[in-house]
Structures are given as structure tokens and as C-alpha cells.
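ok trying this again, last paste got cut off
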Amino acid sequence: MMVDFAWNGIGLAAPADWEPSAIERDGLFLADGSGPVCELKWNRVQGAFSFDRHLKRLTKGNKNAEVRAVEPDEVPPDWAGAVNRLAESGLRARSFVWRAGENRGLGAALHHPGTGLACLVQFFIRSEADEGPAARVMATLRDHTAGKTMPWAMFGLAARVPADFALDTFSFRPGHYRMSFWRSASGGRSGRAPAGKGPGVRLDFERFAPASALLKETTLEAWCRDRLAHAPPASLPMEGDSGRVSWRGDARTSFLRRALRRVVRTSGRAWLTDAGNAVLAVTATGTVSLAESVFNDICGSFTLVPEETA
């Protein structure tokens, strides 16, 4: 069984026993019960791309390792096939091997000329038996930034975000997962995510569990007003029932805010999942309105991933 991971524009499928051990804004580390198995780091580059320069960066970060670029006929056949699969998706690749004492690895520097993606991916090879799974995972790696929406999938959650939103902050704590994206009023995803101040809209995905305990002595509406990162004000009515609530309107307004075009608008939806005993919530808050149809599509994409199909 393979599990899909999608993070800040990068996606891949990995064996079910590979789990995230560390997450960065532009990096992902996977491990199994025996230790690290895969590391990815990426960014966007403007203009010409140099494979040699990116391999030197890897060497600099692994001073105790011997890193060497290799030709297609020097790698296992499955790995060469994976590189060919990546080429079909638009990703150019330069494979490399590394060795540090008794440890060795297999990886590739990747570049997508159409999107500017530059990625380093490496697998920790403990024995020849690890080479096949590494190649199969490598073949699934994809660049998701060229579409109108970008998927994200992590820790049993999945959703799609309009491509002009940039990942801002994230937190995965027991009982509460939160992903936050930001789009400035000017739009676009160039550069790093803005701090979230000024004209724009913030999009939050939240998952809380266990729902049965959280809602034991309260209603979903009251709980949302008390616990959500961007809860609606008490003056804004909610619609719905015990299993689903929604709202849309002004969160902060005044004569001065209207004159300065700084009225803060909010849209939100929270619901109980049919399985998984969780509360899922999506909120969009900022001085720029998010179209209701777009917000509905975003909410519709936010779901728990069933374990039997993960």
C-alpha cells in the first residue's frame, strides 16, 4: 500500500510505513521504523539551472560523505526507469550516489524548466533490497505548481488550494492540525509567503480530534466561536445544525475601515466527519473577499483520507 504526500508544490507516493519525521516549508524528511529513508529539499530558481551547482550544495551539507554524479548506466535499472518517468512529466534529472562510512545513498538533482522547480531528493540505502522501493517512490515525484490549484496531503488529511495562495505557517500537534495560506491583494506566488499583514486573505485548514470529547458538553457552533484560530465574531450569525455550521460576513468593520477599504471579511465552515471522529474547519479571513464558489470548492476538497485507501 502506498500513501500520497503533497507538500508546498511537491507530491509523491511512499510505502505506508514511511512517515514524515520532519517537515520544513521547502523540505520533507521521511523515516520508517529503522531510521531515515528519504529526504527532499526544493526551491524555485530564475534563469539558467546548473546541476553541478546543486550537487555541490549537497556535498557542502554532507562534508563526511563522498558524493558523485553518475550516468544512467551506473544506476540500478529500476532507478533509470524512474528517471525516465520523471522526464515524461517534465522533470530533468541528474542522478548521484553518496557514501559515508558504511552508509550509502542514491538520489537525484531535479529541475523543471517550465516552473523553475529545483529539487534534491536522496534515499538512504541500507541494502540492495532498498533500491527497488526507492526507485518506485522516485518515479511518483511530481511538481504540482503549474495548475490552477495545488494539492496538499499530510497525516491523513488532503485538500486543494488555489495556486495563487502561498503556504505561510503550519502546525501538527496531537489533536490539532493547522495549515495556513496567504494571498496578498496583488495576488501571485512570487517570493516567500508574506507575513500576512496588509490587504489580502488568509486561508486556514484545521482538524481537531477526538470530536466526541471536544463536543461532549457544548454545541458545534459554540465550540467554533471559542476554539477556531479565526472564529467569527459573536455578532455574525451561523447557519447549520449539530453536525455542520457555516458563516459569511464582516468580521471587523467601522466607518473608518469602510472609508479606508480595510473591512475584514470572513467566510467559514466546520463539520463533523462521517468517520475518524474529527472536526474539520476551513476559514477565509482578510480585507479581500474570497468568492463564495471558490470557498465552496476549497471546503469540498478538504477531507480525511481513509486508511484503507491511503
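PB: full thing came through this time. The longest strand covers residues 35-44.
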